[in-house]
Amino acid sequence: MSVELNSRVVRARGQRILWLDYAKAFAILAVVITHVITKFVIPLDMNGSQLLLGFVVAFQPLRMPIFFLVSGLLGASAQSMPWSEVLRRKTGSYYYIYVVWLVLQTVLFLSLPRDIEIPTAVANDIPSFISQLTYNPSNLWYLWALALFFPIAKLGIAIPRLTLGISLLVATVAAMGMLSQLQLLSTALLNLPWFLAGAYFSNVFLSIAESRQKRNIWLSVICFMGLLSFYLIVRIALGPIFSGLVYNFLALSGIAAIIVLFPRVSSALRKWRLLNELIVYIGKNTVQIYVLHVPIITVTAHFFGFLSGGLALAIALVILTTILIVLSSLLLGSGVQKVFPFLFSPPKWVTEKGRTVTGV
């Protein structure tokens, strides 16, 4: 089977495909909300805050799969590139950004006073740092995974259905918790199928999104929310092994809901100029938010660790902190990029044109 690739994945009629930016914005906001809950609010031990873990668990089949699907869609044209270009412009670029920010985060976290609790794994010796560089990525594992996924997709381009099927089988095993000893590598394998699906079958997803057929969108949303609730109940009642069996089905259902919903949402919000521009800006600059939000959460948790209250305060804290962290990441990232462009732009020896990696 041949996989048709064309430039409309990134642009349509000379313009960016707006809903892809909306999908990326949704995905990065879901990531930040998850980390705000797990790394800041839950440790405060507020009354009822444990209920927020239900949100984290329920949205697990949607949060990163949509991120990787969009990355696959946007990177679909790479499958027709020569191997040298794939390794240089894709693998080299994303691994460069991963290494740069791994070094910066490691130095930053190790420099913080000891009374500041660091909510992520930090390499405190050379062997652990080498492991994070290679087979056991840090909290920046998404960039590490992209560097790995592009050559994997290139290897399987001749047999896309078989490659995707094998990756789904591995992802199911990972979702069942049977690869947990691999730590974040297991999480990367869990999301490989969605990158491959976007890269191999971009035209299928774009055609569905562009279809003018009438659909009951809200019925789709309600059904999907029901599926997420079902996943949460199964996860709590039967554990990860049984919930892992339905994980990929729920991820696919969530992706279908996003593809149906977001083109219409993006079209409806165009008239709200400021809101539309903000969402698109977030979608275009996901990497800035991704690399900066955990350090900002760490500092925030240290200075506001005295807070206490009930579930209402916990929910308000999640919302306000997420807004603060996203805006802070964008402002700081924009400033850093202007002063130190090499932190986001791989040098020419990595990629011939030194592309700025701000969103994927």
Features:
360 residues, mainly alpha, two-stranded antiparallel ribbon, 14 helices, 2 strands
Note down, in words, how this protein is organized.
By secondary structure, the chain is mostly helical. The protein has one domain (7-343). Helices cover 69% and strands 1% of the residues. It contains 14 helices and two strands. The chain has helices at 18-41, 52-58, 60-74, 83-111, 126-133, 141-155, 160-175, 184-200, 202-210, 217-238, 240-268, 273-284, 286-303, 311-339; strands at 11-12, 15-16. Strand 1 and strand 2 (15-16) form a beta hairpin. The radius of gyration is 20 Å and the shape is globular.
Radius of gyration: 20 Å
* Tally of distinct domains: 1
Determine the structural class based on helices, strands and strand pairing: mainly alpha
Shape: globular
DSSP helix fraction: 55-70%
Run of helices and strands: EEHHHHHHHHHHHHHH
Number of strands: 2
Largest pleated sheet: 2 strands, antiparallel
**DSSP summary: helix tally:** 14
Lateral arrangement of strands in the main beta sheet: 1-2
Q: State the distance separating the first and last CA atoms.
A: 27 Å
Rounded mean pLDDT is 87
Low-confidence stretches: 1-14
- The share of residues in extended strands comes to under 5%
What's the structural blueprint in terms of helices and strands?
Blueprint: E1 11-12, E2 15-16, H1 18-41, H2 52-58, H3 60-74, H4 83-111, H5 126-133, H6 141-155, H7 160-175, H8 184-200, H9 202-210, H10 217-238, H11 240-268, H12 273-284, H13 286-303, H14 311-339
Antiparallel strand pairs: 1-2
Helix pairs in contact: 1-3, 1-11, 1-12, 1-13, 1-14, 3-8, 3-11, 4-6, 6-8, 7-8, 7-11, 9-11, 10-11, 13-14
